[in-house]
Structures are given as C-alpha cells and as structure tokens.
Amino acid sequence: MDAMPLPKSWNADQILNDLDQHGFALIDDAYSSEYTQALLEECTSHFNQFRDAAIQNGVMSQIRSDHILWINDELKIAQQHIDYLNALSEQLNQAFFLGIQEVEAHFACYNAGEFYALHRDNPQQKNGRLISTVYYLHEEWQEDWGGELRLQDKNEQWHVIAPKPNRIAIFQSDLLHEVIQAKQQRLSITAWLRSRSSIW
C-alpha cells in the first residue's frame, strides 16, 4: 500500500532540512480554506467540552493557563490533520530513524491573558514525545495580539514565531519553548509524534 501523500503546500525536503539544521520548521498556508473553515467550526462547536489544561491529576500548575480538548476518532475533521502528521512521521522515521509510532493531539484555546511558561515537551526523554507540532486555526492574527511561540533552536538561538493563521510549527520536543501571553483568543491543534503509546 502506498504511503499517504502530503498536502502540496508541505515541502517535505525543506521540512527535513530545517529540522536537521535548526531543530524546527514552518509550513505556511498548510491547508485549503475549505478545510481550515471546517476545522475551525469543529473546534468551536466543542468549546463546552474543553477543560483547564493547568490541572494535572487534580493539582493546579502555575506554568500554563490554556484550555484543551483531546482529539479522538469522533472529531473526524481534526483526524485528517493527524492522518497527515502520521504520513509526515513516516518520512521523519526514514530520514532520522526516530521510531515514531503514533500521534497524540488536542485542540488548545488560549483566551486573552493566557500563556504557557518556558518548558520542554519531553523533559528527560521520559514520555516518548519526539517531535512537537502546533497548527494555528484562528481566522486572523495581528502582530500586537501576542500569543507567539518563543523557541530556542538546537543551536541555542532564540526565535519568536508568530501564530499566523494556517501555519504549522514543527520542532524537536526536547527544545525549550514558551507561549507568550495572548491578548486575543488563540486557537490551535497541538500534536506530538511519539515513540510509544500515550498515558493520558
């Protein structure tokens, strides 16, 4: 069976090269306007199911204040995004021998004033997360609205990545990063390409 093709806007060679050189890559204009609109509608129609991401096992965390909804098979439009990430995982495995086995993902909503302080997605390589991705699905974003992804690349250089609509940021899960406080509602899908099954 042939591997699922990536969207035409995803330049696999560029993604692989950027990850190899810097530890992160960007995809702009990732999807068609029809798909992005359908995805946004699926996200917003489930707002009542989002939960406070700062509460882990009943304990309040001080480093984040966003709200999330884990994506499962019932969220069929978001599942298409995960299918593409699985296809990308195959290419990453071939290029870098990462051993990615699955993708876990959730919708994330940062309301005005919310943030995620400096952290790594895979501290001490304990949770199997190898590659992190963030897809921005809000309809518009202005420069003074905050919400940027601030990231230290593999060469210890810092980058500030704007949450441009229809953009995907891809980076090594062990890189230090944060989400700067948002001034408007910021919507995304955060996904991790993992080497083993999740425990959530």
TrEMBL record:
Keywords: Dioxygenase, Iron, Metal-binding, Oxidoreductase, Vitamin C. Transmembrane segments: none annotated. Its cofactor is L-ascorbate. Gene3D superfamilies: q2cbj1_9rhob like domain. It comes from the Bacteria. One of its GO terms (molecular function) is ferrous iron binding. GO terms for biological process: cellular response to hypoxia. The keyword Oxidoreductase applies. Residues 96-195 form the Fe2OG dioxygenase domain. Pfam families: 2OG-FeII_Oxy_3. This is Oxidoreductase. The lineage of its organism: Bacteria, Pseudomonadati, Pseudomonadota, Gammaproteobacteria, Moraxellales.
